[in-house]
Amino acid sequence: MTPKIEDNRFETIAKVDEIITLNAILMVRNLFSCCGIINYFWYMVKNYTSIFLRKVMVLVLLVFAKVGHGQEIRIFTIADFDLKGPVKSCLVSTSYGKEAYDFDMEGKLTKSVTRYNDADYDVTYYKYRGGDLIERRFENYRNNTFERSTSYANFYTIDTVPFRKVTEKIISYDKEFLDRYEYIYDADTVLVKIIRTNNDGNDETLIEHAEYKGEQTQVYALNGTVIKSIRKSEKVGKDKKKLHVVLTKKFLEGNPQTALEEVFDEQGKLRSETHFAIDPKKDQFVPKEVTTFEYDEKGLLLKSVTKKGKSVAVKEYIYQFDQGEDGNWVKKIITPENAYTTRKIKYYEVEISEKKEE
Q: Which residues in the chain come in under a pLDDT of 70?
């Protein structure tokens, strides 16, 4: 679902610092859709004393302070983890540690554990009501000890009168208020405004939606300054099949800085992504890196080709399955580096009742 961190740093003297740094990166990866990220980093800075770590955290904090704004709340399911069927749990072994995921009968994520070693791990719990996420708790454990100062909870309340509004409150396990977000929707249940409130005051993000000649555009403005735009359009590929194009631009102080173009096929598979940066001489976007993806008939990634300048990097993917080729993959090998990921998957026992003719 998400990029993996490929270094294992737990044999150094600065073990604790690096665990926390990895944890912070993983929090960005796993919880970017939640809005307590900046506060999470602030808690890390306050509660750990390493000078180097504080510098790293402050730099990351400043970056998110510039671009940080609420994201529409997302519910993760088995599909986000490249799984199918009545999956109950999935244990993933990676180069930096292990990740464990639990799912309910409907396929929604209920618990995730990122374990760096036997004594250091993070746990996130998800609670739902009527298909909506109502609670998410992040708990941090170091040396098999619960770290209250770096653990927190997100609580969600939903109001549908006159239109849908979701309120998110972020509270530390020390019972300190961190953030409050209000997600406001229009009559068509489209997110149009996000209001953030904390001890520093209020921030308002307006999302403007427009459609022109078949293109749909969303523009995010934080306190009146554009920070992001998303344009969705369609085109016809070389094989005369329809492709969906998503162009995301990010801004700094109202000025465009980077852009990412993603091209998806009709099955929703990512076919290519192009990263752009501003050329200061031409004052326009120029492509910096292009990656194309190839899939088999079942939708599994077979090959990726990344071009950056004059360099070309090719990766190929080989899979082993738990129930033949119609099951989930349990081992993925990436060549030419021969890196691999393994998964242990457990399933719910589904009873199939057959009607017998009398």
A: 1-71, 352-358
Q: What pLDDT is recorded for position 97?
A: 86
Q: Which two tokens stand for residue 226?
A: 């554009």
C-alpha to C-alpha distance for 355 and 67, rounded to whole angstroms: 57
Q: pLDDT for 23-76, tens place per residue?
A: 443 343 333 333 334 444 444 444 443 333 433 343 333 333 333 445 678 899
Per-residue pLDDT, 272: 98
β-partners of residue 258 are: 250, 277
**Is residue 245 a contact partner of residue 263, using CB atoms and an 8 Å limit?**
yes
Q: Is the distance from CB of 113 to CB of 121 less than 8 angstroms?
A: yes
Tokens of 261: 């173009």
Exposed e or buried b for every residue in 102-122, given b needs 16+ CB within 10 A? bbeeebbbbebbbbbeeebbb
Name residues whose C-beta falls within 8 Å of residue 56's C-beta, 6 or more positions apart in sequence.
21
- Residue 243's DSSP bridge partners are 235
Q: How remote is the C-alpha of 94 from its chain's centroid?
A: 18
Distance between CA atoms of residues 76 and 133, nearest Å: 10
Q: In the chain, what is the greatest distance between 2 CA atoms, to the nearest angstrom?
A: 81
CA 301 to chain centre: 19
Cβ atoms of residues 347 and 90 within 8 Å: no
- What pLDDT does 36 receive? 38
Q: Which run of H or E residues covers position 139?
A: strand 132-142
Dig out the tokens for 310 from the structure: 């004059």
Residue spans per domain, the chain: 213-281, 296-349
pLDDT at 103: 98
Cis, peptide link before residue 256, omega less than 30° from 0:
no
C-alpha span between 352 and 331 (Å, rounded): 29
Question: Phi then psi for 101, rounded to 5 degrees?
Answer: -130, 135
Model pLDDT, residue 326: 80
C-alpha separations of 243 from 28, 185, 237, 333 in Å: 30, 29, 6, 29
Tokens of 250: 């990010």
Rounded to two decimals, the pTM is 0.76
DSSP, collapsed to helix, strand or coil, labels residue 51 as helix
